Amino acid sequence: EVQLVESGGGLVQPGGSLRLSCAASGFTFSNYDMHWVRQATGKGLEWVSAIGTAGDTYYPGSVRGRFTISRENAKNSLYLQMNSLRAGDTAVYYCARSMTGRAFDIWGQGTMVTVSS
Amino acid sequence: EIVLTQSPATLSLSPGERATLSCRASQSVSSHLAWYQQKPGQAPRLLIYDASNRATGISARFSGSGSGTDFALTISSLEPEDSAVYYCQQRSNWPSITFGQGTRLEIK
């Protein structure tokens, strides 16, 4: 079964750091671009980062310089290192896969990140 | 950044009726548009990619149309399980990806 499972969410203070993980199974992980998408409670979807099959990385302005996406193909794993966290980063974080230039066809179940003192 | 505007914000229809959801882009995205369905407490699910192609396992009741700046998701003969929020997404100006704000579909 093709599956993505996120972990690592939790409560963190403003200015703190957190590292999310996404474990992939059931497909050839190295062949796919991978993404993080977040959703604040009751709000819409926001693309947070992407990493290509060659390790190229992309971010929107809202997280660039604070978040770092990485992958470890040997472990079928995707990561998101989040630094200098703000209250506005509070959300459920999903990982998702896509073929290069294509839509997000598989999503994980999400992991909750709460930034609060 | 390309802005996607979805309308209406909420749509309330009865089982068996036809739903048409709209997504308008602030500039042309060619056919690089996808639609997702999200039910409460669940992750989004891909319905339509490249504007009009159904994803694997998606019912033929779901269809997508449009190109350039105007797109539509049509759900024929609504069923109670179609109650969800629907999002459009563009990848035209990769690496910038944006989503619409969503349309909530309620089945009476």
Radius of gyration of chain A: 13 Å
**Globular, elongated, flat, extended or rod-shaped: what is the shape of chain B?**
globular
Multimer state? heterodimer
- Number of helices, counting only DSSP H or I runs of 4 residues or more of chain A: 0
- The fraction of residues in strands of chain B falls at over 45%
Query: What is the helix fraction of residues of chain A, given as a range?
Result: under 10%
Which pair of protein chains has the largest interface, and what are the residue counts?
A-B, 19 and 25 residues
Q: What's the Cα radius of gyration of chain B? A: 13 Å
Structural class of chain B: mainly beta
Strand content of chain A: over 45%
Distance between the termini of chain B: 36 Å
Summed up, the helix count of chain B is: 0
* Order of secondary-structure elements of chain A: EEEEEEEEEEE
Report the average pLDDT across residues of chain A.
Answer: 96
Walk me through this protein's architecture:
- The complex is a heterodimer of chains A (117) and B (108).
- With 117 residues, chain A is mostly beta strands.
- Chain A has strands at 3-7, 10-12, 18-25, 33-39, 45-51, 57-58, 67-72, 77-82, 91-98, 106-107, 111-115.
- Chain A starts with a strand and ends with a strand.
- In chain A, the strands form two sheets. In chain A, strands 2, 4, 5, 6, 9, 10 and 11 form a seven-stranded mixed beta sheet that branches.
- Chain B is mostly beta strands and 108 residues long.
- In chain B, strands 2, 4, 5, 6, 9, 10 and 11 form a seven-stranded mixed beta sheet that branches. A four-stranded antiparallel beta sheet of chain B has the order 1-3-8-7, with no helix packed on it.
- The relative contact order of chain B is 0.35.
- Chains A and B meet through strand 5 of A and strand 4, strand 5 and strand 10 of B.
